Structure to design on (541 residues):
């Protein structure tokens, strides 16, 4: 049997899938959340096909798993009106609620979200082909993120629950919301990355317009009623439909105060320019990246290979933090490639419910074709696929390819492949990978593999000013979520960690007065009567 046929045989009949991993009935969503209601939808829909295929008379076909409303600008603008009314220029119920009460709503939401755990995990797996282990991790990590966010907000609130006196002025400062937030997440972490912006924005008192990603849309359906039940009407609203039809009108209205998008810098730039008053728009963006691994002569090669495989191929290389190019010193490159090929040959390919599976079907229908183009382009410029079966494809399943030697003429040198290809560039002088980073439009992270302290320190200093995280002998990654996650150049705007996100979605406001007897008495009266949620010395424990 040819290798391609072996790959094809990994796609099994529906009846052979263990019961516990079957999706059950198709999910045909005919409602959406807007202005505190689950509104019925009888307009056009977008069908959702899983990257998991089933064999049939015409070969392998993606499985239809459901559909969702293909909303238009009309519904998007209604959602915007609802969010604007709920914010009510900062006078709405949600933005004026005490921090303790907002936390209570988010806690209630988390409780209801946990009730939907199994459904959401299965939808992540079926919709984007993420392994069941990683889909489970994505859900649990998101719940943990919400809990950490609540703790961080309590901490910020405790620090703000006091007056400061400076030069005869007494003041209390707190963080206040910014307004209406348009939140758009990516397909590769449809739940986690959407919620790492949505939840901090929400808990800080903003109102939300939330557009689910193109793949990973149904994942959010089981959570809509929880949003409806746990927050005042109009605080969380959904926008379904093609971005090109729904989002421009929202931006052109000038009523979006914060754009938060995890996606491409091209889209982010276009959207920002649509806002009539760019100075009023805050943008929190996590964008393109092409993180490099640099393996020097003094690296522990086996350890470097293990980390590079993880960094390049976890979730099939579909992570913004993935290692997308690897520079290896020419004196050790042959040994490195041998070890890397051996490691790749041990990877388990297959359906996402399999225990220990490493490489799973790709969600984007055009991705296998694009990866093929990248490989052919590299071959036309002198590169080779150097591992057995590298790039072999059956429907949505692509066997990882190591492409070597990669040079500056190839697409793989600059483009973010976002898939299972490891481009390897041999270098002679360490100035070459440094210059690559200087010339790059990206600046998220780098991984340096070396066991020589002097060599590492000579690389840390240039790289911390070129990227936002330098990883030593470890793959690039976002977590732990308490660490700052950001990037330079076209890779990000703003910072997202548990604490930084709370800052990103808020602005400092203060109440100040001259310290005299009358004002002292007034402040005491307000505080003692608990008349204001802002001017208050109450502690949340
Ligand atoms: O897609 C980008 C994600 O933020 C990556 O997160 O490094 O934890 O996989 P991760």
């Amino acid at each position: 049997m040819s290798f391609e046929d072996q790959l094809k045989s990994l796609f099994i009949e529906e009846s052979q899938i263990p019961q516990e991993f079957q999706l059950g009935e198709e999910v045909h969503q005919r409602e959406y959340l807007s202005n505190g209601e689950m509104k019925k939808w009888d307009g056009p829909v977008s069908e959702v096909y899983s990257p998991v295929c089933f064999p049939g008379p015409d070969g392998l076909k993606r499985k239809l798993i459901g559909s969702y409303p293909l909303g238009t600008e009309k519904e998007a603008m209604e959602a915007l009106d609802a969010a604007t009314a709920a914010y009510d220029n900062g006078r709405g119920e949600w933005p004026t609620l005490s921090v303790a009460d907002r936390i209570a709503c988010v806690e209630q939401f988390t409780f209801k979200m946990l009730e939907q755990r199994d459904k959401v995990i299965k939808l992540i797996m079926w919709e984007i082909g993420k392994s069941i282990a990683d889909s489970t991790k994505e859900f649990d990590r998101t719940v943990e993120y919400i809990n950490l966010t609540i703790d961080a907000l309590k901490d910020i609130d405790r620090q703000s629950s006091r007056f400061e006196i400076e030069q005869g002025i007494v003041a209390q400062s707190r963080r206040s919301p910014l307004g209406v937030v348009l939140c758009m997440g990516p397909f590769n972490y449809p739940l986690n990355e959407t919620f790492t912006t949505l939840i901090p924005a929400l808990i800080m008192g903003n109102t939300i317009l939330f557009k689910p990603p193109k793949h990973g849309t149904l994942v959010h359906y089981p959570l809509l009623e929880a949003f409806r039940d746990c927050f005042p009407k109009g605080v969380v609203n959904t926008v379904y439909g093609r971005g090109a039809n729904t989002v421009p009108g929202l931006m052109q209205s000038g009523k979006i105060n914060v754009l938060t998008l995890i996606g491409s810098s091209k889209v982010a730039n276009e959207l920002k320019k649509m806002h009539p008053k760019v100075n009023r728009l805050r943008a929190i963006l996590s964008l393109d990246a092409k993180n490099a691994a640099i393996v020097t002569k003094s690296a522990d090669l086996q350890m470097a290979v293990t980390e590079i495989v993880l960094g390049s191929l976890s979730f099939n290389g579909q992570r913004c933090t993935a290692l997308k190019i690897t520079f290896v010193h020419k004196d050790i490159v042959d040994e490195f490639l041998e070890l890397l090929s051996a490691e790749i040959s041990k990877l388990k390919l297959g359906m996402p419910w399999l225990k220990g599976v490493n490489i799973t079907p790709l969600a984007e229908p055009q991705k296998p074709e694009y990866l093929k183009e990248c490989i052919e382009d590299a071959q036309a410029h002198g590169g080779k696929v150097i591992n057995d079966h590298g790039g072999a494809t059956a429907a949505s399943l692509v066997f990882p390819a190591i492409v070597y030697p990669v040079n500056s003429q190839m697409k793989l040198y600059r483009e973010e492949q976002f898939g299972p290809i490891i481009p390897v560039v041999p270098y002679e002088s360490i100035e070459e990978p440094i210059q690559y980073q200087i010339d790059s439009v990206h600046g998220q992270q780098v991984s340096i593999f070396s066991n020589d302290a002097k060599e590492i320190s000579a690389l840390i200093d240039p790289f911390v000013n070129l990227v936002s995280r330098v990883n030593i002998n470890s793959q690039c990654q976002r977590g732990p979520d308490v660490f700052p996650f950001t990037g330079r150049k076209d890779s990000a705007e703003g910072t997202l960690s548990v604490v930084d996100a709370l800052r990103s979605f808020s602005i400092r406001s203060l109440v100040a007065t001259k310290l005299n007897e009358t004002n002292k008495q007034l402040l005491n009266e307000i505080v003692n009567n608990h008349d204001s949620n802002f001017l208050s010395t109450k502690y949340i424990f």
